[in-house]
Request: fold
Amino acid sequence: MSLKEKVRSLARLPYVTRLVDQIKSSSKKHLTLVAAGAAALIISAAGLGLSSSAGEVKALNNSPLPTALEYSADKNAVTALLSGNLVSVYGGSFELKSAAEKVGEVNVSRITLSLNEKSFTFTDLKSQLKLTPMLSSEIDDAAYIWKSEDEKIAAVDENGTVTPKKNGTVNIICTEKTSGASAKCEITVDTTEVESLKLGNEELELTLKESKTIKTEIGPSDAANKRLKWSSSDESVAKVDSKGKVTAVSAGEAVITCATTDGSNIKKECKVTVEDRVKLTQIELNYIDIKFYGLGSVETLEVLEYVPSDATDTSVTWSSTDENVAVVDSNGNVSPVGNGDCEIIATANDGSKVTASCPVDVSGVENYVTVTNTYEVTVPVNVDVNETAASVVEEADKYVGWLPYVWGGTDLTSGVDCSGFVCAIYEKFGYNLWGIRTDLINAGREVSLEEARAGDIIVYKGHVAIYDGAGGKIHAPQTGYMVTHDYGIGNYRSIRRVIE
Reply:
């Protein structure tokens, strides 16, 4: 390849230095630039040629010169060549001489870069600024490098988009890779800072594995940066996440610090004490729901599962949301009272406030006679308590509405409890069940509901009754009520046949 072809080929590469050139206005048609011992490149306003004549080339500031320069009239550009490689020529004035005389000068000007903004002020942290670079002369495939002098104040991406971070002033610098030209934009971030910070807790008591989030209040409401930084003085005792959630790790004390990140340097502290015990986080009951039909039945609720399993105190307190529907004792025994719906609630006693509930549905409570405080047992004149009826059901039905429930009672003239009533009725027919009074589920043999007939014993958990043969039961329901006849049997455990 000839020198002319090589120069033209290299001139098409992206490494082209733009110059403010006076060659166009020179009175000389040909200006010869030579370097000792090398072929000369003839530059003119008209075109490009080669010359082998000797001559001298030097810069007025005596800086090293390239071996050759190419002038492109259509691009008004000069490309410098050195040992076959392109080099950039920046500022300076070059004297052009022939072998005998000075024939002119070429002033070489550095390419400059400017940005669409020389300075900019952000008043909030949600906005962004797009900086656009502009070169004084065109460069093929120009590439830019962006840099922030302090990314904590403002950051810039590879496309020149500036994002404010916190109050302050910083320069964003843009550099064009080929020419080295650069420019900067002064960025000022001036937003409303946090003036006050309050924590919902100055002291916090936790148990092992327990977590609690510390609430915060930041003022003023229009503060630009409300991000907070949380830290623990001892993470082996208590850890804290980025949202202020504190988790107890081991017994001891630690200080949780909350600090602003907008430069206002406000800090608040919360003292955390971790106790050496584990609180409940969840409890599960043995029943999903309970349905009662009529009075007298008793169902026992228990805590089936504790979470965590190593909780220190697993005791609970039982309560009813409506004691007119169902009541519960301290052991979880649930008894129906009246028609309706309610919930039986178990509340953990360890201070965790963890609860579990069981819906209760009571129906079939009709025409129950209650016992008043001044009630005295009066046998109806048409009832002969000494005469035994023809059947167990007929005998049991004689006491409905006037014989009161009495805890532990066994007397058909003054009061009975549920098992005392059943045993006393059966005794009249020659069957002695008193020995298994509290365990009547072992009386006789078990029959299905389809096989059940009048006089069979219905056994519940904590209660017994006499089956009426028509889907109902006669029983002494509970304290405060008379012996009653229900038209439903509810959730029974077993049906026992004593009289075959």
Q: What stands out?
A: The longest strand covers residues 267-278. The CA atoms of residues 316 and 349 lie 5 Å apart. Confidence is low (pLDDT under 50) at residues 1-108. Helices lie at 3-11, 392-397, 418-427.
